[in-house]
Amino acid sequence: MRERIKWLLFPGINLHTRQRYRILPRCLESAAPGGACLLDAGCGNGMLSYRACLKGYRVKGISFKEGEVARCRKLFNGYLGIPEQRLQFEVMNLYDVEALNQQYDQIICTEVLEHLMRDEAVCRSLFALLKPNGVIHICCPNADHPYNRSFPLDPGENGGHVRAGYTYESYRRLLEPIGFRIVEQRGLGGPVRQFFNSRIKRLQEKYGDAVAFPLFLLSFLFLWLDREEARVPYTLYVKAVKPA
Length: 244
Hints:
Layout: H1 2-9, H2 15-23, E1 37-41, H3 47-54, E2 58-63, H4 66-79, E3 87-91, E4 104-110, H5 119-129, E5 130-141, H6 146-150, H7 168-175, E6 181-188, H8 191-207, H9 209-219, E7 235-241
Parallel strand pairs: 1-2, 1-4, 2-3, 4-5
Antiparallel strand pairs: 5-7, 6-7
């Protein structure tokens, strides 16, 4: 019963997370027959690994958090019965990612780089793991958003944000010298979504999900008021290619 309820609410009541779950998979082309290989670098709760699997990819999701990997295996391989040949989760630190020693057609790296001091080193490793003409999908907080600018930083790299995020310009400065070519960019998350999400998050932290849930439901009456792309979006997505 617990797994059933968890699945009904998946991927949770964070409004930004739910938007990424809905929109980012559209940026993935369906895999060719036989399946292409995709790496979810920093898989979190496995939501994008799962959506990529549904589009025909053979997916490996990695996280340095043993608890995250255990929960993903229990939900997707256990409760949903997806075989590990199609969707596999592994404990791994992104600084060691080249040890996978495999080439991938696509890589997802969302809400991850803002937690890493050596973001350039990780991006170079991901570049090395991509096949020629392979694609990486990156989504991180917008460094120009007021909430992200005020978010407390974690200089010790203990799981928090080590930087406020990125701008389109800082994405270019990070990715283009490595060899990536940015081919698409878009912002996600408008002011209405952020208004409700910040309050839902505070209620969650103070009282738990049950108290926050009514506000989560109420928010759906107002989210349509956000424009498709806000003037100052909460997160920024870029799609970049490794040239042949």
